[in-house]
């Protein structure tokens, strides 16, 4: 259990760093408004692709137990070779994940990590609803916890909207489009939670293998997309001019993207490790705790750059509601496990 808690801590730390680094590369001018190069999403996919090798390295150095992240139906038969997913399952998982990633990353670049994390943390509620629709029973205490988490995030969202009230019409439109992108992407991300869990439980593919295979396909797709862009648009227009306009160094851009790849790999590694152990809904609750931290650091680091990033007493109150709801959900989940074991 102690190792599982380490994964949970790594998941939270890397999850906080992800949107903040996305903001950083945006403020360095290392993203393209139009046409979108999807470089932040590419960093995410490369991180996913590396997960299997990172996991194997950690096992080889006895940093983690070889069984962590494996569902119970993956037999320990000594065969650790490549187990490809069936094409249909791989295609579905990839389509859901890449669609979610495109929408959420584009939305984040428009609205900033402060607004983004309000909406994205509703993954908890969406995951629970989708799991329930697919037949997973939830206790009333779990629904109560989800309700409090959602209430806290709505309160946070109202605080963000108040901060954005002084924005120009064009900025307000950008925020609206960004909000819609993140919202739809969040629903798709919740669907990915639920679908990936079902794939893991029904197949002999480990969570790490699933992550790497999906990440590999997505990496190839985005690299191919960027290659096609270079035949239509000037290379400097796509990747160079915006960085020069911001006065940023290419070394700082390279460092920021390298850190983003590393953080994404760690986040995906910890997510898939926990997905095999905790289940989709409980993993989703961690997103709520992550949101509180992102709000704080976004306000400290980027308030002077974007009004919607700034902290307020209203957000502080919502933080307490989110934490309370998360605690209620965890206690109800433990009760559900005890009831399941008693059957």
TrEMBL record:
Leader sequence segment: 1-17
Gene Ontology cellular component list: membrane
Keywords recorded for this protein, A-Z: Membrane, Signal, Transmembrane, Transmembrane helix
Transmembrane intervals: 117-135, 142-161, 173-195, 207-228, 248-266, 278-302, 314-333
Keyword Membrane: yes
Keyword match Nucleus: no
Top-level taxon in the UniProt lineage: Eukaryota
Stated name of the protein: Uncharacterized protein
Organism: Hondaea fermentalgiana
């Amino acid at each position: 259990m102690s190792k599982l808690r380490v994964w949970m801590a790594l998941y939270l730390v890397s999850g906080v760093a992800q949107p903040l680094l996305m903001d950083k590369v945006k403020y360095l001018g290392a993203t393209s408004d139009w046409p979108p190069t999807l470089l932040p999403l590419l960093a995410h996919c490369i991180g996913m692709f590396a997960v299997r090798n990172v996991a194997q390295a950690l096992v080889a150095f006895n940093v983690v137990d070889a069984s962590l992240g494996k569902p119970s139906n993956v037999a320990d038969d000594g065969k650790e070779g490549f187990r490809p997913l069936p094409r249909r399952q791989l295609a579905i998982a990839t389509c859901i994940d890449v669609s979610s990633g495109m929408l959420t990353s584009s939305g984040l670049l428009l609205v900033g990590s402060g607004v983004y994390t309000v909406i994205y943390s509703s993954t908890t509620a969406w995951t629970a609803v989708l799991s329930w629709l697919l037949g997973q029973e939830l206790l009333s205490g779990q629904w109560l916890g989800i309700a409090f988490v959602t209430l806290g995030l709505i309160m946070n969202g109202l605080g963000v909207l108040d901060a954005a009230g002084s924005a120009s019409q064009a900025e307000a439109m950008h925020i609206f489009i960004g909000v819609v992108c993140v919202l739809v992407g969040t629903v798709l991300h919740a669907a990915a939670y639920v679908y990936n869990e079902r794939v893991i439980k029904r197949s002999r593919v480990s969570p790490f293998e699933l992550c790497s295979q999906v990440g590999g396909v997505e990496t190839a797709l985005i690299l191919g997309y960027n290659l096609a862009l270079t035949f239509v648009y000037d290379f400097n227009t796509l990747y160079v001019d915006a960085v020069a306009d911001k006065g940023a160094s290419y070394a700082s851009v390279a460092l920021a993207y390298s850190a983003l790849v590393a953080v994404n790999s760690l986040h995906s590694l910890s997510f898939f490790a926990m997905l095999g152990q905790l289940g989709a809904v409980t993993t989703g609750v961690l997103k709520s705790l992550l949101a509180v931290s992102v709000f704080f650091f976004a306000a400290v680091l980027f308030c002077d750059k974007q009004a919607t990033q700034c902290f307020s007493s209203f957000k502080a109150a919502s933080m307490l509601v989110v934490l309370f709801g998360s605690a209620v959900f965890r206690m109800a989940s433990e009760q559900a496990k005890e009831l399941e074991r008693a059957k």
